[in-house]
Amino acid sequence: MDQKHFRRRSRVLLFLLLAVITTYTWILFRLQVVNGGYYLEQSTRKIANTETVQAARGDILDRNGRVLVTNRATYQVTLDEKLMGDDQKRNATLLSLLDICREQGVSWTDTFPVSQSAPFSYTSESPFENVSVAEDGTETRSSTLLTKLLRSLKLKGLSETPTASELMEALRTYFGVDPSVSGRDARALVGVLYELTLRSRDVSRTSYIFTRDVDIDFITVVKEHKLTGVKVETVTVRQYNTKYAAHLLGQVGAIQNFDAYKDKGYSLSDTVGIGGAEAAFEDLLRGTSGVKDVELSQSGRVVSESWHVDEETGEVQAPQPGNNVMLTIDISLQEAVEEALARHIPGMTADSEKGACVVMDMTGGVLASATYPTYAPTEYRAQYNTLASDPAQPLFNRALQGLYAPGSTFKPLVAAAGLTEGVITTKEKIQDTGRYLHYDRIQDQPMCWIYRDTRQTHGYENVAEAIRDSCNIYFFETGLRLGIAQINDYADLFGLGKQTGLELYEETGQIAGPETSAKYKQTWYEGETMYAAIGQGSTQVTPLQLCNYVATLVNGGTNYTAHLLKTVKSNDFTQGLEEYEPQARNQVELEDAHLAAIKDGMRMAATTGTMGQHFSNSPVAVGAKTGSAQVTGQATANAVLIVFAPYENPEIAIATVVEKGGSGSRVAAIAADIVEYYFSARDAMDAPPAENTLIR
């Protein structure tokens, strides 16, 4: 009985042992076979470097709250070469990615300066050296990125300036491109590897985004191929809700000079404002970048992502969106100005094809600033090469950077100076003698325009009549009485020949005089004062300066800093963070009677002759002054026109320049359209939103 019991217990123990072994075997099977891959991946998990995540930029709005620039979500593809394996695996991955791009019609970033197919040639005239020429003719030479990279790689047997074919062959070898790869595919692959190597060698301090702003269909195909080291990111890009104001709004793009941004918390992958309001208000629009911890497997698969927590403060470092910037411009008025330029400049003369116009309020706020020809903000990236090579230079901001002689639009300034300094009075009449008889020799006697054209004269005229008729003799005399020093002093007070203080980049210009002549190593003669007094000679100003000068004149003599910023709103539109306050720079002490005489002359100029035809139906009375600025070597003069309205209580100033436009009176049609729109259509414009309704 005991033996029988022993056998029974032995069988139970054996059964239990088999059960344990079976269970253990099953667990091992699950660990190693069923879930082996998962646990292997978990065991080889690693933490990638933290990533800086750029905050969404703030919106840009016009003065009435219309959103001009905002953000939209999209995708971009970046590459991590470290995860791609050896040359063979890396090249296979990149060739697959390039095939997908071609199939999907997606372009990628490629700045390698070699043609896309054999026989290979350089796409740049100087692929190995950058040459820049300063205004004084001094040449500055520097190495291109290609040259810097080749020095870094130290390719054996390759000269410092190889042919494009020699370079391609050397890089094919260096990058391990299989000989069986076609020339086209090899060129595309080398182009991508060139971009990656520029950055891995720290030759180019910009991030390499393989392709940006791609749609979900492309991203789906990329993910289906499970390409190691190819990273898909959700990002925001700028969206333009208008096709106008391209020069004012600007663009965003990759950082070109990282040294200027690295101390401000930027990463190489960040984008920054390039030109226009995007650049001017970068600090306001940018926001605060976040920091993200990304956990990866060895295969490059994202295991987890989380916002980094500061060890000292415990603060979660999520990105904070930028603030919203409201500009002084009215986008509806901007549209009207751009369309007026496009409607009237072509065909104004046989040669007219370029121009600019600025509209300002009385305290320096820019209501509109337009250049012709122009482009739509949405076209900038796709059409950049076409725009950059266009001989009409649509990328050039003529309103802020074009320099022009003011011609007779300078005469109201000389009148203001003469009246204030007491060298003329409102009642004194000066005789137009046809030729200016100050000089004895006839060859030295400049003429009034009417005498030159018709051999007639204006007779005796006071200051208002001289402005009306643009009498050269009157202003020759006034200019000589003042002297060039006082003319220059008043030009400075009115803001001509110097920057207006606008937040955007602008040219300085210059006023004719001894200092300007000395700059060009020329001698200044007294007789040049006469031509300076009528806005000729070496005087050069921007349309923006002209507009600010007019506003200064008719507002009573206060020269304000020009500005584009109106208001700054918090990123959620709930708080007003900053309200721009007009800033006075200079004050011209104009007596009421003196200003009245000048305005009267400009009012008469706007109601007579060709200008009178254009302004006769204006909804408000206007004052104006034309200018025909002769340009050396140019048969047709530039046409210049300054306008203010209403005459009684000015609200806006307008300055327009048309290159090779002939005469300022021809430009009156443009100004008349603007005045008509501003004072007739403004009531039909969208009403400015109330303070608490800017929340979207």
Description of the molecule:
The chain is an alpha+beta fold and 696 residues long. Helices cover 36% and strands 19% of the residues. The strands form seven sheets. Strands 3, 4, 7, 8, 13, 19 and 20 form a seven-stranded mixed beta sheet that branches. The protein has a five-stranded antiparallel beta sheet with strand order 15-14-24-23-22, sandwiched between helices. Helix 14 packs across helix 18. The longest helix has 33 residues, at 2-34. The protein is elongated. The model is unreliable at 686-696 (pLDDT under 50).
Number of strands: 24
Structural class: alpha+beta
Q: How many helix segments?
A: 24
Mean pLDDT score: 88
What is the oligomeric state here?
single chain
Q: Which percent range describes the beta-strand content?
A: 15-25%
Per the principal axes of the C-alpha atoms, what is the gross shape? elongated
Strand count, sense and closure of the main sheet?
7 strands, mixed
Radius of gyration: 35 Å
Distance separating the two termini? 91 Å
Give the proportion of residues in helices: 25-40%
Runs in which pLDDT lies below 50 for 5 or more consecutive residues are 686-696
